[in-house]
């Protein structure tokens, strides 16, 4: 997926560029300080998303948006809250009020329809943002040792850290179906690539983690190993 930034303030441009780089799933193809130049670019180039400031020289962001016959997805960025209603009447994806945090940025881009953007945890991608409380933490899926059901939460266990998620274990079992994870117990989902050895009751992962194998999961698990 690709995007452009239309923003006349350089500090605001730098923040958006950093957030896009940290997010890692949207490619920035061009940056403009005014809408007129962007219009010329869009005549010959298709984009999926525009980060659009409202207060721009020559022509406002809203007037620019009204001029587009088939606009792409648009996220408005502005220091003024007064234009939120105008933005939503133009069917914008979100309205980011400056200064906005990375977490708020992620919330906005995650409103993109799934068919428009490849999710971080799709097959073939080893990185994702894991929501934990009010934070989004970038992780590598292959570095997860195991995921444990913990009352109302699930606990992601890595070599040097643990992260709590509010999603149930069944959710992650479905989510990681293409990432070599397998349920071995009602409370444990393990990364097959982290297994060191196994016997009929336990399996042993990297970094001396011992995981019980549930009775109802044994046959399927050992068949998978074979």
Describe this structure in words.
- The model is unreliable at 115-123 (pLDDT under 50).
- It is built from seven helices and 15 strands.
- A hairpin with a 3-residue loop joins strand 13 (195-198) and strand 14.
- It has two domains: 2-109, Rossmann fold (3-Layer(aba) Sandwich), CATH 3.40.50.2300; 139-225, OB fold (Dihydrolipoamide Acetyltransferase, E2P), CATH 2.40.50.1020.
- The strands form four sheets. A five-stranded parallel sheet has the order 2-1-3-4-5. Strands 10-9-8-12-11 form a five-stranded antiparallel sheet, with helices on one face. The chain has a three-stranded antiparallel sheet with strand order 13-14-15, with no helix packed on it.
- The chain is of the alpha/beta class.
**Low confidence ranges:** 115-123
Mean pLDDT: 86
The chain-level structural class is alpha/beta
Q: N-to-C SSE series?
A: EHEHEHEHEHEEEEEHEEEEEH
Which descriptors apply to this entry?
2 domains; five-stranded parallel beta sheet; 7 helices; five-stranded antiparallel beta sheet; OB fold (Dihydrolipoamide Acetyltransferase, E2P); Rossmann fold; 226 residues; 27% helix; elongated; 32% strand; single chain
